[in-house]
Specification:
Blueprint lengths: L6 E3 L3 E3 L5 E4 L15 H14 L3 E5 L5 H13 L4 E7 L3 H10 L6 E8 L2 H8 L3 H16 L5 E6 L6 H13 L4 E6 L6 H14 L7 E6 L6 H10 L4 E4 L13 H10 L15 H12 L20 H9 L27 H10 L7 H17 L5 H12 L5 E9 L6 E9 L2 E9 L2 H12 L5 E9 L8 E9 L2 E9 L2 H19 L11
Parallel strand pairs: 3-4, 3-10, 4-5, 5-6, 6-7, 7-8, 8-9, 9-10
Antiparallel strand pairs: 1-2, 11-12, 12-13, 14-15, 15-16
Length: 528
Amino acid sequence: MSASHTITHPSFGQMSADRVIIFDTTLRDGEQSPGFSMNLTEKLRMAEALATLGVDVIEAGFPVASKGDFESVHQIAKNTNGPVICALARTGGAKDIAAAGEALAPAKRKRIHNFISTSPLHMKYKLRMEPETVLDLITTGNTAARNLTDDVEWSAEDGSRTEPDFLCRCVEAAIKAGATTINIPDTVGYATPEDMERIFSMLRERVPGAERVIFSAHNHNDLGLAVANTLASVRGGARQIECTINGIGERAGNAALEEIVMAMRTRHDQYPFTTGINTPGLLKVSRMLATITSFDVQPNKAIVGRNAFAHESGIHQDGVLKNAATYEIMTPESVGWSRSSLVMGKHSGRAAFRDKLKALGYGDLEDSKLNDAFSRFKDLADRKKVVYDEDIVALVDDEVRDHDHIRFGALSLASQSGKPSEAELTLHVDGKTVAAQASGNGPVDAAFNALRTAFPHEARLALFSVGAVTEGTDAQARTTVRLEEDGKMVDGQGADADTVVSAVRAYVHALNKLLVKRTRAEPEALTA
């Protein structure tokens, strides 16, 4: 698209050359990360948050993968207003495309996104297909998708390692068959910014019909270049960006939505493009995702990390006090950080607690979850001298996680040096109270043994990590538990002033996620 060129798209109407579509794949590509999983309720919450944030397209899942994936896409299509709802399908899979169309049926605006590998390596070893067969499938697959919706996207998997001449032929075939968006992914994170800009410039110059479609970039972060490659793709003519909140995704992840959007906003002189993202909502959505997935954002993460606007150096602090622009290239408020000074303690009431949660980016909690979180806050305030924002975040994160099947009840421990520890545990499993007793080599081992007695399972404990939320001997513990079962991994987190209770809460959270993960299955590889 030239500076003056406009394009008419079936979902977005007439678009100017400086408008960039934000395609969020947190719920599809992001959820494929090892250890990540979301249940239906959590996916609906994320979809609503993404809609409020202003993303243009939500890739909701891969309907043919499992009944759970199909239902997730279907419910998001039914209940989420605003963005285009997109479902993934394999180009050569007739069942895939039919399932995508059926799952998307309730959506007001919908897209089928089909893909097939085009690189020599993938065609030979993954697909075991000749190039001409791949070309035929591109035609039949996109034609089938176009019969179900006017908005069709086609992706050249491993596009960045595809031979240029063949890539041009594939893109031309997809456009002729009805694709309205063409995505060229750097599937394995191999490309450089120069590569991606060159690929998109080449396709726009060489492919007949290129002026009628939107080009899209989907970059993985294996070399830490996903955001740079995405911005370079936009320079080359891409006008859709495929990204995820917090950059989550397979292996090293995807291009991070918040980083791309703020790069274009902050350096508008270099990237004179616009998006529909409500940037003050970035932190809230980032925190929501971290809570749901139990994967904390690293402290020095750009935009949404807790140190992103922190200044410890005396020289930096002096400069910021005199003029924030000396060391801050964007305001904290522009991405959702708050400078609230409201102090919380044991005399704080429910209204003040609710206001604090809003200031921390949580929005409105359901009454039941607000009541549970407030009750735990009051208990914590009675036990701690000072309740920090980090303490509130930890306990609220723990409460707002969905525990559909298993909930922590109570724990009683007896421990003495040199002797086995004893644990009595109560769980609520599908509404029924289950009690169990067990001994172990220490209180945590005893508690976990009691949990395995109360809810029998074969998952292996692959990681157990304990950290303090804040400083001091009265600090809350935040525990991470990783469970592994049949090659599937899930992480759970829990927080409590009692370290063993935090460990049990984390284990319970991991178990709930594992129950969701058990229902997920990837379709077999498409081969000739």
